Amino acid sequence: xxxxxxxxxxxxxxxxxxxxxxxxxxxxxxxxxxxxxxxxxxxxxxxxxxxxxxxxxxxxxxxxxxxxxxxxxxxxxxxxxxxxxxxxxxxxxxxxxxxxxxxxxxxxxxxxxxxxxxxxxxxxxxxxxxxxxxxxxxxxxxxxxxxxxxxxxxxxxxxxxxxxxxxxxxxxxxxxxxxxxxxxxxxxxxxxxxxxxxxxxxxxxxxxxxxxxxxxxxxxxxxxxxxxxxxxxxxxxxxxxxxxxxxxxxxxxxxxxxxxxxxxxxxxxxxxxxxxxxxxxxxxxxxxxxxxxxxxxxxxxxxxxxxxxxxxxxxxxxxxxxxxxxxxxxxxxxxxxxxxxxxxxxxxxxxxxxxxxxxxxxxxxxxxxxxxxxxxxxxxxxxxxxxxxxxxxxxxxxxxxxxxxxxxxxxxxxxxxxxxxxxxxxxxxxxxxxxxxxxxxxxxxxxxxxxxxxxxxxxxxxxxxxxxxxxxxxxxxxxxxxxxxxxxxxxxxxxxxxxxxxxxxxxxxxxxxxxxxxxxxxxxxxxxxxxxxxxxxxxxxxxxxxxxxxxxxxxxxxxxxxxxxxxxxxxxxxxxxxxxxxxxxxxxxxxxxxxxxxxxxxxxxxxxxxxxxxxxxxxxxxxxxxxxxxxxxxxxxxxxxxxxxxxxxxxxxxxxxxxxxxxxxxxxxxxxxxxxxxxxxxxxxxxxxxxxxxxxxxxxxxxxxxxxxxxxxxxxxxxxxxxxxxxxxxxxxxxxxxxxxxxxxxxxxxxxxxxxxxxxxxxxxxxxxxxxxxxxxxxxxxxxxxxxxxxxxxxxxxxxxxxxxxxxxxxxxx
Length: 814
What we know:
This protein is an alpha+beta fold and 814 residues long. The protein has 4 domains: 263 residues, no CATH class; 94 residues, Calcium-transporting ATPase, cytoplasmic transduction domain A (Distorted Sandwich), CATH 2.70.150.10; 151 residues, 3-Layer(aba) Sandwich (Rossmann fold); 85 residues, Alpha-Beta Plaits. Helices cover 48% and strands 18% of the residues. It contains 28 helices and 27 strands. The strands form 5 sheets. A 7-stranded mixed β-sheet has the order 10-27-26-25-11-23-24, with helices on both faces. A 7-stranded antiparallel β-sheet has the order 13-12-22-17-16-15-14, sandwiched between helices. Helix 2 runs antiparallel to helix 3 and helix 12 runs parallel beside helix 28. It is elongated.
């Protein structure tokens, strides 16, 4: 396929999604609106004797022609096409009923005495007892059949269209235009094209505020992407060169150059749409059962109609009574409600699920939810956030205090200053905790990284500050009080990670020339050797690296000002050669779009440059005479909604089990937090699959919820007999094998998915019951001539409307 052909084939699907249903709905609406006034005329004149004037029956006959010919054309066409292939459908019964009613009525007019001027006809529930002096005409029945059915089909078409609202909303997330980048260097050019014209390998620019045109890899630039519409996550996602980006997400800050890796139907957005489409197109076993019944039902009813005609004639009744009963059988038995029972509920149910962020891979999944009795949940990323947060601070006396206590804040402030330049998850947790509590940073210099152990730096007074593993501090000889060690051991026993910080007074370091050069090189280029003024400022509202650069550039435009901005602590250290007031500095940052607040101002010295973390290590002796500042208990945070999710699953009669590769203590702690009694811990990916198999062999119907690559095998195994449910924020391999995908990472959506699936199945069964109940009651009445064809058509149409309205209740499901 050529590039141009490929581009042409990737036209945005959302522009066409549902167009066929819209056209069908428009056609049905037009036919309904045209036939309705004719039907009202026919019904009024036929049913109200006071309106019947001389020759009224001929007005009725000609008024019925547009209805039974043009209005009923869709039914006649479908019946003819089915007949050509030797099959029959519900449209076959409709077409036969309309044709039989109309032809008999014309016969009655011309040959049966019904065309005489002055003839009167009144409404009768039982046609056999109506008129003995002339043949009966049933134009009102034929018109009613068509008009009622057009109304029902119009409602069905609209329901089917609106069930795709969620899918259209997803697909419309995609960008309409893209800025194609051609050439490189000074010869680089930019050209705006339709997003659908992009091909794999094309490079395109994404400006702040624009949507990502298609899936790709960032080649240039850094930014933060708003993925909330795709994943439900409120926090922007940082991207930089090498990061994968998804089409339809919003670029909130810096400009990016992206190379397209997938276009058109190959994008993640299109994949989600395809999942919904396939789910709505597949047939559940209960629907296949209804289809089999319909395939037998239609020819059976035709046979019953013919037997009814023959039976009435053999019984000595008139031709009129025989034809009336036969037509009534055809009309009343039309299995429209039976045909609508399952697909309408599936469409509304899967559409509602998609609106809730629940993507169902196939209709069979709905039925499997009925028997689920056990659910296995992965820990990290499913019940927990997958990010570290500070839980408590252990002080030297062994007390475990809240991070909000004064004594804890003192230790946290120093430690967060040490960790502020690190991108390690634990360091980010500590700096985030300090930022949340608005703690001022402590000036540190000569930061050094000790890979795998921790960091060290010099404080303003020359003291050595250390932060890292507890074992590292013990190896350095830092004395740790027994009470503190006991509290640390207890925290680690629950699966928490503990880091500690210490202070060593009177530290003297002999630096090599290389170290000195490095230290000098790390100083700001425009900070003079005689020092100056250092201003510490809080900067709120920054979300990404480009925000940092924007603040630094704005401040750097002032004469003699150099700024170092830290995104993790949302702070800036500003070195001044000239004395600017706090208000002047804050006004510059405000102009950049952020929220500044000067915290402190002090004189700088040439020996105290701003902290910069370097990869060089500091030579430390084997024994340091220091003191413990505090130990910080950090753990993966349990999601706020996890406990509620478990309660909801239990309310559905499902037993939750925590299945994780983490060690037993960490798993038990999380389980106790959310209310799970059963825990399977320390399992490898293959073991997770085996755990699912064991439960299945014991007779359990198992659902598995996971988000990682290590969950894919277990999800696939669960799908064989139960359910595999993947978190949409997880790995592609997990999503690919799952029966359901939860677009957001909220675990309560797992319970919601089972709830909406069971509700859909319940509505299907209700629809099938009423459809069969209607036929069981009405067909015998029609056979014995106790049902007027017009009332039969109204009853048949109303049964279809009831099925559709019952299905629409799913739109209120939650």
